[in-house]
Amino acid sequence: MISSRRPIISAVNLVGVMVNLALMYLTLNASFVAAVQIMVYAGAIMVLFVFVIMLLKLDIPKTSENHAKGKTWVALFSGLLFLEVLSAVFLRRIKSGDGFALLPQQTTSALDIGKALFTPQWIVPFEAVSVLLLVATIGAVVLAVRRLS
Fold first, then answer.
1. In 17, 70, 93, 116, which residue has its Cα 20 to 30 A from 61's Cα atom?
2. Which string of DSSP letters, residue by residue, matches the chain?
């Protein structure tokens, strides 16, 4: 995602990252959180990102030979890291013998998650993230208006 110079390609790769994160939630037996991850982040938030990218009309920079070499190293490092994580997951699975359940079974309903989010412990971070997204969108609109003027 971070190695691409084209903003739209980076946004599409970010969708892939969000889907992979949802798959990690599934391995932790958190199916509700995985579904919310795909619906909210890979869906709604990415539509917002693509809207801002289109609004800013970002230029596509020319690629260079050094950038292509950098992509090769990033791809090699990412592949090795992926193989390491994959081997760690499967080795743990073989040792424990309990399939893909890496944590003990937990039954958490959507009601429990909703109640936890709106308790005094989590309401401030939850609202801070929403304000941060709003400020970022307003900043993008301001920058786009300045560029068009």
1. 17
2. -TT-SSHHHHHHHHHHHHHHHHHHHHHTT-HHHHHHIIIIIIIIIHHHHHHHHHHHT---PPP-HHHHHHHHHHHHHHHHHHHHHHHHHHHHHHHH-STT--S------HHHHHHHHTSHHHHHHHHHHHHHHHHHHHHHHHHHHHHH-
Task: Answer with the residue of higher pLDDT: 135 or 106.
Answer: 135
Distances (CA, A) of 2 to 37, 39, 61, 78, 79: 20, 23, 15, 12, 15
Interatomic CA distance for residues 4 and 42, integer angstroms: 19
Of 33, 54, 42, the residue nearest 116 (C-alpha): 33
Q: Tokens for 113? A: 């998650």
User: Per-domain residue ranges for the chain?
Assistant: 7-108
Tell me how crowded residue 21 is: count the other CB atoms within 10 A of its CB: 16
Tens of pLDDT, residues 53-79: 887 776 665 655 555 666 777 788 888
The rounded distance, in Å, linking the Cα atoms of 104 and 92 is 13
